[in-house]
Specification:
Blueprint: H1 2-25, E1 34-36, E2 51-57, E3 61-62, E4 70-74, E5 81-88, H2 92-107, E6 110-114, E7 124-138, E8 141-154, E9 164-175, H3 181-217
Parallel strand pairs: 1-5, 2-6, 2-7, 3-7, 4-7
Antiparallel strand pairs: 4-5, 7-8, 8-9
Helix pairs in contact: 2-3
């Protein structure tokens, strides 16, 4: 019995010690993560004549610094940080290519605007990358910074070297209405709406010019 008692005391002490350690190391309940996306009304159908062009919009790639769903912000030169409990629903490349596809399709300016995984044959490919997608923090306020680069290629051109038809970079800075991630999402939405409109207009004008020149030669 003495041996049993001698073993029991250290065992009970060990149990109390483990119990105390478990309670002490219980993680503090984390704050709930909030997810954001871009949100703005699609453009109204255009009254201009639709072009006989079927555009496939490939999923945009994203610069390494912003290739994440974490919301990135800049507080000083050469620094990029991220919010902990506030994130984008998708990474910038996915958000941008989705909204651009939707906007171009809703205008009715093209025969078809196809998503990247569509099996419908296309006459043109629109691809690009997100150069910048972040919150710029300055003493006089915050801004949403958006930079996109696009390349339009024609699949009907037999000469591969001539398939690149149009390329351009678009840059937009939009003031935030507050100092919250939601204010950034609103500002980034405005920036995307304007850039999307510019891209759609540029591509339409370019392809229409080619179409008009082709009609005149025939």
């Amino acid at each position: 019995m003495k041996n049993h008692r001698d073993l029991c005391v250290p065992f009970l002490c060990f149990c109390f010690l483990i119990g105390g350690c478990v309670n002490f190391r219980d993680p503090i309940k984390a704050e709930k993560t909030t997810f954001y996306t871009l949100e703005y009304e699609a453009p109204a159908p255009s009254h201009s004549q639709a072009l006989s062009a079927a555009l496939r919009v490939k999923r945009f790639s994203t610069a390494p610094t912003y290739d994440t769903n974490r919301i990135i912000y800049r507080e000083g030169a050469f620094r990029r940080d991220a919010y902990v409990y506030h994130k984008w629903r998708n990474n910038p490349g996915q958000l941008v290519s989705h909204f651009l596809s939707r906007d171009m399709r809703e205008t009715g300016l093209f025969e078809a605007v196809l998503y990247h995984d569509s099996r419908v044959p296309a006459s043109h490919i629109l691809e690009g990358w997100v150069d910048e997608f972040f919150e710029w923090d300055a003493k006089d306020g915050r801004e949403a910074v958006l930079s996109l680069s696009i390349v339009l290629t024609g699949l009907d051109e037999m000469d591969v070297g001539k398939r690149t038809l149009f390329q351009k970079t678009y840059h937009k800075r939009e003031p935030c209405g507050g100092e919250t991630p939601k204010a950034l999402a609103e500002a980034m939405s405005h920036a995307m709406q304007e850039v999307s409109s510019e891209i759609t207009g540029d591509i339409y004008s370019f392809l229409k010019q080619i179409s008009d020149e082709t009609s005149q030669t025939h």
